Glucose-6-phosphate isomerase
Amino acid sequence: MKDIILDYANGFVSDEEILRLEPQLKTVHRILYEGKDQNVGWLNYPNEYDRKEFEMIKESAEKVRSNSEAFIVIGIGGSYLGSRAVVESISHSFYDNMVVKKNNIEIYFVGNNISGTYLKELMDVLEGKDISINVISKSGTTLEPAIAFRIFKEYMERKYGRKNSKERIYITTDKEKGVLSQIAEEEGYNRFTIPNDIGGRYSVFTPVGIFPIAVAGIDIDKLMEGAQSGVMEYSSDIIKENISYIYGAIRNILYRKGKEIEILVSYEPRLFYLQEWWKQLFGESEGKDGRGIYPSSLSLTTDLHSMGQLVQDGRRNMFETVLNVISPREDIVIRKDEKDLDNLNFLAGKSMDFVNKKAFEGTLKAHVDGGVPNLIINMPKIDEYFLGKLMYFFQKSCAVSGYLLGVNPFDQPGVEKYKKNMFELLRK
Amino acid sequence: MKDIILDYANGFVSDEEILRLEPQLKTVHRILYEGKDQNVGWLNYPNEYDRKEFEMIKESAEKVRSNSEAFIVIGIGGSYLGSRAVVESISHSFYDNMVVKKNNIEIYFVGNNISGTYLKELMDVLEGKDISINVISKSGTTLEPAIAFRIFKEYMERKYGRKNSKERIYITTDKEKGVLSQIAEEEGYNRFTIPNDIGGRYSVFTPVGIFPIAVAGIDIDKLMEGAQSGVMEYSSDIIKENISYIYGAIRNILYRKGKEIEILVSYEPRLFYLQEWWKQLFGESEGKDGRGIYPSSLSLTTDLHSMGQLVQDGRRNMFETVLNVISPREDIVIRKDEKDLDNLNFLAGKSMDFVNKKAFEGTLKAHVDGGVPNLIINMPKIDEYFLGKLMYFFQKSCAVSGYLLGVNPFDQPGVEKYKKNMFELLRK
C-alpha cells in the first residue's frame, strides 16, 4: 500500500447514501474555494507558504539545537497540539529518556495549563540546562501562554542577561497586530508569522507548527510534501474520487442516524497527541449551535480492557474511525520457549505487529457485529510525509463535514465565554 | 476543608429528585452488602486485607528499590490503571527526568498494548540498567501481558541467568489457579495474591495496585487509611449523609434526562491516569445491555482550547464532574514587571493556583449557563490519604450507579468478544 486509503465497507453506510450527498458536497466545495468564510488560508498554504521564512525557520532550528539542551514551546490549543502531535508521533516512544542518551534536544510544552505544580516542577528539571523558548500566540492576550511567557522571560533574563536572552527567544505571532507582536518589536526578538487567514486548529503547517517540529529534528520538507500531495488529491469535486469528502459525508450520515460520539482509534500509543489534535479540529469546528459529534479517542488494545466493554455492549450511540498503520517503525519477534509454560509457542516466530494486526481485525469484527460502525483509515507508515498528508486530509474533511452540518467550521465563539468570566473574576 | 465534599447545587438535579430514589438506593445498599453478585470483596477489603502479605509487599518494594534502577509493571486494564493512577498523581510531573536526577527508581508500564515499537524502544531505554519486574494477571492467559512477560523473562534470564533472575521477578496472580500461578510455582518466583472476589477495576487496594505503588516510594499505609475512612463514611444507608450514593443517584437521574456523556474534569495535568482509571471503572461497570453513560475526560484549562467550544455550545448530551483540588502541591507567584508590556501586572503577587481557581470558577459558570450540569468533587489535596478515599468513593458510587441502571456492575462479558475473534485469527 502506497497511499492513505479509506475503507468504509462495513455495511453501515452505502455508496448510494454517500452519492445522494453529492450535490451538497459540490456546493460545499464551491463555498470553500470561494472563501466566503474567512480563515480558509490553510487550503492552499502547503503550496503557497513563504519559502524565505521557511529557510529562516530551518536555520533557527539548527541554532537552537546547537546552543540548547531543552526547548520550551509556550502555546495552547491550536498553538500547541499540531506540533506536539507530529513531534510525539515521530519521536522515540520513551522520548525524555532517549534525549538524555542521544544528546538530542528535550522539548517541553508549557503555557497550555495554569497548574503551578506543573510549571514549578518543570523548573526543577531545567536546572542547569541551556534553553531556548518559542512563544506562540496570535494576539498575545491568551492568559495561559502569557503567564508562562512572563515567568520564562524573567527566568531567562536572570540566567542569560537581557541582551543574551534575546538570542534564545522566538516569537510566533501576528505579522503586526497584538501585544505579543509589540513585545517582539520592543525587545528585538526573533519572530515568525501566523498568517491572518488561518485559524489555530488549521495551523500545523504554518510556523506555528513547523518551527517546534524542526527543532525536534524532524524533516519539515517531507511534512510539507505530504501536505502538498493532500492539497492535490483532496481537491477533486468528483466525490467518489475524494476520500476526504467521503469521510466528511459519512460522518454526517452517521450523525443523522443518531451516532453522537466518534472514537478515533489507534493501535500505536505514540499517536496519542495526533488523536488530541484531531479532537480539537473536529470538536471546535463542529461543536456549536447545539450540534456536533462528540470526538473521543481510544488507544488499543490498552483501552479494550477499560472502555472495550462499553463499546461492545453499551449504548449504540457511537462509531469508530480506526487509524491503521500498515508498517510499524520497530518490531519484536516472539520466540519459542522450550518449556512453553505460558502456552504461547503457537505464536513463536510471529512478530508483535502480526499479533497487533490480528487484534485489530478481531476487534473490528467484534465491534461491527456489536452494531458499531467502523471506518478504517489505512496509512502505510508513520513518517513525515504521511503525517502531513493525513493531517491535511483531516483538515479538509473537517471543513466539509462542518458545512454539511450547517455550522461555520472556522469560528469558535463558545471559547470566549469562560475567558470573559475568568477575567471578570480576576479583575475583582 | 478537611474532607472530600460533593457539590451539586447547580440547579440541574434537586434534593427532592435524589430523595425520590431513596427506596431504590436502600435496596441497592442491601443487595450490595448481601453480596448477591460475586466480586464484592472490595467492599470491606481496606479493613480486612492480609497484614502479613502487606508487610511482605513493603519489604519486597524496599528490595526492588535497592537493587534496581527500573521497575517494569506488566499488566493491562484493572491490573494496570489503578497503580499507574496513584503513581502518576503523586509523583513528580516530569517523572522520567527527575528519577534520573534523584537517583530514584524509574517505573515503566508494559504489556498494556501490543505495539512492537513501544516495547522495542523501551528495551533501548533499559540498556545497561538493573531491573525488576512485576507481572500482574489473574489467569495469566490475557495475551498482552503474557507476550510481554515471555519477552522479559527471556531478557532477564539472558541478563542475570535463570537463578538470579528469580530474585527480580514478582508475580501477582490467583492464589492457586491459572497459568501464571503454575509458572510462579514451577520457577519459584516471589508471589502476591489477587483475591478471588475482587474484579480488576476494583483492585487498586489489593497487591495488584499496592506493590507497584510501594515500589514508587509512595506511602501505602496512608493510602489504605484513606480507603478505610471511605469504607466507614460511605457505608451509611442514610442517603443524604452518603455522598457516594448521592453521586451514583445524580448520574442515574442525569442519564435518564438524556445526558449520555459524563466528562471527568481536572485542572491538574498529573491526574490524567486517575481519569483513565475512572473511565474503566464506570465504563466497564455500566456499559452493557445497550445502556451506560459514555465516560470521557478533559484536562483543563488545556482542553478548553480544544473541546471547550463543543462543551459550551455543542449538543446538550453531556454533564461534567469536576475534580477540584483545593491546595496545590507546588505553586508559583506571578511577579510585577516594570514595563508591563504584556499587561499582566494586574496579576502581580497572585499565584498561578489563584488564577487556576478563577479559571475553574469562570468555566463552571460558563458551562452551567450553557446548559451543562456540573458536579464538583472538592478534595483538600492530592496525597495518599485523599487519593485512597477518593478511589474508594468512586468504587462505591459506581456499584450503586450500576445497580440503579439495572446492570451487573461487576461483570464484563463484552470484553471476551474481541479476544475470541483474535485467538481464532491467530490460530489460523
In short: Residues 97-101 of chain A have pLDDT under 50 and may be disordered. The beta strands of chain A are 5-7, 70-74, 106-110, 131-136, 169-173, 190-193, 261-266, 294-299, 318-325, 374-379. The CA atoms of residues 325 and 382 of chain A lie 7 Å apart. The first strand of chain A starts at residue 5 and ends at 7.
